[in-house]
Design goal:
163 residues, alpha/beta, Rossmann fold, 8-stranded mixed beta sheet, globular
């Protein structure tokens, strides 16, 4: 599930990599979804209009992995970014992957706090990050998982901020 799928390029690329994955996309803009359909008319993904800062909807499908790319960093009103994070974790049963600008929100602190308050429905929360060899090994994404993974553990948020 890509939240903030816009013109659908990431979903399209995932579909090119493998046809074994069932793809979903959400965007709050009907115009963006119309652009997605125009840009990728054969995209095999279920997409729907939904504002991730609204309360959770039972109409959202459960998925193994939900991800964002430069979406939550733009949510600056009230606690909308927290609602968006909770919604991501309510959809994803295994992992949430965030590719964001790390400065606007203290993502790791917020996620840990939401988990402690049981607003994230996972029994366990494992926090990791991935370095980008193609960018001088700079940290570039956060991987949050309900099960242990083989990625580098994220203990100190400064790793992402300094990257």
């Amino acid at each position: 599930m890509e939240v903030g799928c816009g013109g659908g390029d990431h979903l399209h690329n995932l579909g090119v990599l493998t046809t074994e994955i069932q793809l979903f996309g959400l965007d709050r803009s009907g115009a963006q979804l119309a652009y997605l359909r125009e840009r990728h008319p054969r995209l095999a993904a279920e997409v729907q209009e939904f504002d991730i800062t609204l309360p959770f909807s039972a109409l959202l499908p459960p998925v193994d992995v939900a991800f964002t790319q430069a979406v939550i960093m733009h949510i600056q009103t009230g606690n909308g970014h927290l609602v968006a994070l909770v919604n991501l974790f309510r959809m994803a049963t295994r992992q949430v992957v965030l590719m964001e600008n790390w400065s606007p929100h203290r993502f790791l602190d917020a996620i840990r706090s939401l988990h402690e308050k049981q607003m994230i429905p996972w029994a366990d929360l494992h926090c990791y990050f991935r370095r980008a060899p193609e960018f001088g090994n700079s940290p570039h994404l956060m991987v949050l998982s309900s099960v242990p993974l083989g990625y580098e553990p994220l203990g100190d948020y400064a790793i992402l901020l300094d990257g």
